[in-house]
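Bit of a strange request maybe. I'm writing a small parser for structure token strings and I need a real example to test against, not something I typed by hand. Could someone generate the tokens for this chain?
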Amino acid sequence: MTALKNPVMTGLASLEEKLEEGDILGILRRSPALFRKAAADASPKWLAGRRPAGNWSRKDVLAHMLDTETVMTFRIRKILCEEDPNLSFFDQEKWIAGLRPYREKDPRKLIARFASLRGKNIALLSSVSEEQMKRTGVHPEAGRLTLEGLAARMARHDINHLKQLLAG
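Reply from user aminoacidic:
Good idea to test on real output. This should exercise your parser:
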């Protein structure tokens, strides 16, 4: 895994620079490839390993990325199509536990599904106007967010989970 960490760590540093620059869509475009690299040649033992101070395995983290992208797909569309909608809460712990029996055994399939959804979300976000990026929705934890703010949360979420995946 050490050989994989270097390019992923370099890519992670690049994402953090993009965050500083405000290149949110750049982060959203690049992060699926970093998740893919992190898990590409990972052993089943490494994937089953728990993050430091966490209850999830690394494979659970990858599954969480797919779950979250699924929710974000819905939230983006709600903000674009409704006036100041409530953005549904989802209990990530229950989703991880409840969906674990149905998950693909191959983490590459999880990442591929995540990357596919992310591509669709990026295509949509790239096509909206600046005015539409200012549309708002009410997030259950963060309160009122613009679509641009939701995209920034997605980018920070990616960076956070890449760090967690590589920790330990």
